[in-house]
Amino acid sequence: MTSLEGRKSVKDLLAERGLFDPRVIAARVGDEIRDLHTLVAADSSVVPIHDSDPEAIWVLRHSAAHILADAVQRLHPGTQVTFGPAVEGGFYYDFDRPEGPFTDEDLPKIESAMKKTIARDLPFAREETSRDAARALFESKGEKYKREHIDDIPEGETITLYRHGDWVDLCEGPHVPSTGWVRAVKLTSVAGAYWRGDAKNRMLSRIYGTAFFSKEDLDAHLARIEEAKRRDHRRLGKELDLYSIDETIGGGLVLWHPKGAFVRHLIEDYWRRAHLEHGYDLVASPHIARTGLWQISGHLGFYADRMYSPMDVEGTPYIVKPMNCPFHITIYKDRLRSYRELPLRWAELGTVYRFEQSGELHGLLRVRGFTQDDAHLFIRPEQIETELVRVVRFVLGILRAFGFTEFDVELSTRPEKFVGLPENWDRAEAALRAAIDSTGLPCGTDVGGGAFYGPKIDIKIKDCLGRAWQCSTVQLDFALPERFEMEYVGDDGKRHRPVMIHRALLGSIERFFAVMVEHYAGAFPMWLAPEQVALVTVGEAHSEYAREVAAILQGRTIRATVDDSSSKLGAKIRSAVLRKVPYVVVIGDKEVAARSLSPRSREAGDQGSVGLDAFVERVVAEARPPRLEV
RNA sequence: GCCCACGUAGCUCAGGCGGUAGAGCACCUCCUUGGUAAGGAGGUGGUCACCGGUUCAAUUCCGGUCGUGGGCUCCA
What number is the ipTM of this complex? Predict the structure, then answer.
């Protein structure tokens, strides 16, 4: 412990080195962000953090959470505080309120109380204290959750309190210098949240809010949220007539309308072709199977709460499939396999059904019935590394072909509940990491996040609100070959056990489609657009030529429509533009006379006059699916 | 599943201190044949999610159910 004499405040350190100015809100000291008034060793390295730096907003929002908790406790005495961190886009604080949870109606009052605290510009003060003193303080306040938290702080760690005005919280900071820095704050919603994130614990009342250094930043943030709502796949799904979910059928069960189904089939066609070109064979399997299959696979043991109840078939229980793997394994086992056959790569667009709790359903992103673009690779142990590299490159090639370039890659390691030998897990994890490293992409680690049968790599793509959704997954599996007693005959004439790789590139077609709708804001690229060319006539004399052009385009597999209704040209164009059709083509007297067209591109606007043949060739070329770069 | 909110025409939404409802768009009919994002007129369309309760009377108040939205938990 440095003696008090050897320490100086961060602000003083900055000032003596000429690094301080009025827009500095904190500083980076070593690896940590510290408040200006924190005392640190006089020879510490300090880097100022200005209000415009990316870290600054996190500091501000955490301070806003304190101001929120202060306001809540003043307005609602008896409410206990728990945790209140800054999060992406804002902050929250979880409360235990004896009278019951907060509602939307409570927010305006709390928000105005917060603004009073902000107007008083109270300084945030940091205070180091002893464990016993902290325990006594929160016990005297009746703060059971804080009291519990103190006991969880590791021995030897400094316990700090933060005060503004007469409100105090157990908190490690850092905070902005004073409440006045929170120049724009807005409480956004209430929600339930379990204490310590565990569904077995008491549900607390969470208040969400956001805060900024300026009103302009807050307004820009709110505008971004509005824009995101316009891209929401549920909204676009309705506006563009792509799909629906109807309660007479059931939540989480998707009806694909003609346009959505068309896009889906285009995705699947591309997928199928890519697989055939990259060493896969296609297989197909039923939707239900006898319960015994799921006992062998272990799904009933590890997964039963996410599977639907058995149905009775002449006295034998059958279960609708939550996964495709046991079927593919059964195909493998249909006859004796030689090492010469491996690797076997079997793919299927397999529709599976999983029980999801009602509160978890979300448009196409979280459903109860979905089609996995599944494949299982049966390989010899010595093929693990090369096959994993192949799979990972194939995944990234497909995702890039559909227009995605930014991914979060994560390696999930052995969970508490697992089958198989730990040394096999270690080998599999190392092989997965090596495969990712070979692509040069950064990779996070979810310790203990693997499936019960093996470690995995997940690739996530973000939706319009920045939420990352898992799509691709590559999972190694030592367990199922064991459980199903899979074998192949090696070059030594002896029986060996294959290794299995489960992988999905798009994940679920439903989820991938949703993410794609949001990614393109409904404006599908030419090759995927359900309607590629909209021919609109100026007057009734132009219908015949328009229909002839449509027939020519359709003959070249271009998806063209004719609008020769009695509406005015402007209205027809507007209608086609709202459908986000890549080309709107105007046909009037000039075009009929010259056998030309006047296309209007979704991206580049009016294209002037173009000859019919030239336009057809151009559109056909643009409608070609992208080359798969693996 | 849990917490909060919401559920009025195909869609987006008004409205009602309890007396069975309205707009715009869409749709249908007619007029208009108009050159790059909405021509005009008329019309159809609602058991106000569902089930119960209170009341002379409920779409409105109360309770429950279902569904949806935002979170939590979980997850492709």
Answer: 0.91
